[in-house]
Amino acid sequence: MKLLLVEDEPKLASFIKKGFENEAYELEVAYDGRVGQSLLEKNRYDVVILDVNLPYVNGFELCRRLREHDAQVPVLLLTALDSLDDKVTGFEAGADDYLAKPFEFKELLLRTRALAKRNGEAASVKRVLRMADLELHLDGKYVTRAGQRIDLTTREYALLEYLLLNRGKTVTRVDIAERVWELNFDTNTNVIDVYVSYLRKKIDRDFTPKLIHTVVGMGYVMREG
Fold first, then answer.
1. What are the residue boundaries of the structural domains of the chain, listed by start?
2. I need a surface site. Which of 108, 149, 162, 176 has the fewest CB within 10 A?
3. For residue range 85-123, what is the model confidence (pLDDT) as tens digits?
4. Buried b (16+ CB within 10 A) or exposed e, 157-166
5. Burial of 181 from C-beta contacts in 10 A (0-12 / 13-18 / 19+)
6. What DSSP letter does each residue of 177-192 carry, written as one string?
7. What is the pLDDT of residue 23?
8. How many CB atoms lie within 10 A of CB 13?
9. What is the CATH number of domain 2-125?
């Protein structure tokens, strides 16, 4: 299980990291909201633990930004602010749980495990990625649009899955090369553009709205319209 902790108190961050590693969890640490956001944009985590009072981007705002492109990953807020209004603000930002400081590590561990288990159970039930009338069925490894089955090659399917998992986020050709092709990107090849073109013909050409968009000079983004 891979966790992200965004916490600006080094001693507390070290304490939490050591505790989770002793329980055989992998935990990355960011010491401010800006670095935390960068890690969230690059990586996928099973649970995200956010302090509220962070430099640059506070925990509430960071949670809101995360929810713009990932509605599934569980978020637990850590804070010395324990009023009802603060909790409401946290939950409205998209948090799943709230733990006031100071706390026992065991309670943090139990809450994290519960969030991960709940998310895993939800994922096992809902193994379909959707956007507009497009559906990608993870278990059956097939795709439909407007109820019509669309035949994709293995590489086209992997590319579409990656784009859907990063919906709303611009992914570069380097990202695609590393995550879908699992190789270093060669700037002299247009293989990624060719495969995006193949995919567009199959899932966008005869349907509306168009879902795959080019971000000039950067890469591609999957969004409605």
1. 2-125, 128-222
2. 149
3. 777 888 888 999 989 998 999 999 999 999 988 876 655
4. bbbbbebbbb
5. middle
6. IIIII-S---TT--HH
7. 92
8. 19
9. 3.40.50.2300
**Beta strand extents in 45-190 (DSSP E only):** 47-51, 75-79, 97-100, 128-131, 134-137, 142-145, 148-150, 171-172
Q: Could you read off the pLDDT of 9-55 as tens digits, one per residue?
A: 999 999 999 999 999 899 999 999 999 999 998 888 999 999 999 99
CB 84 within 8 A of CB 55: no
What is the spatial distance between Cα 60 and Cα 53, in angstroms, rounded to a whole number?
Answer: 9
Instruction: Write the CB contacts of 159 (distance below 8 Å, at least 6 apart in sequence).
Output: 176, 180, 195, 196, 199
Does the pLDDT at position 154 exceed 80? yes
Asked if residue 185 has pLDDT above 90, the reply is no
pTM (2 d.p.) = 0.56
Q: What is the CATH number of domain 128-222?
A: 1.10.10.10
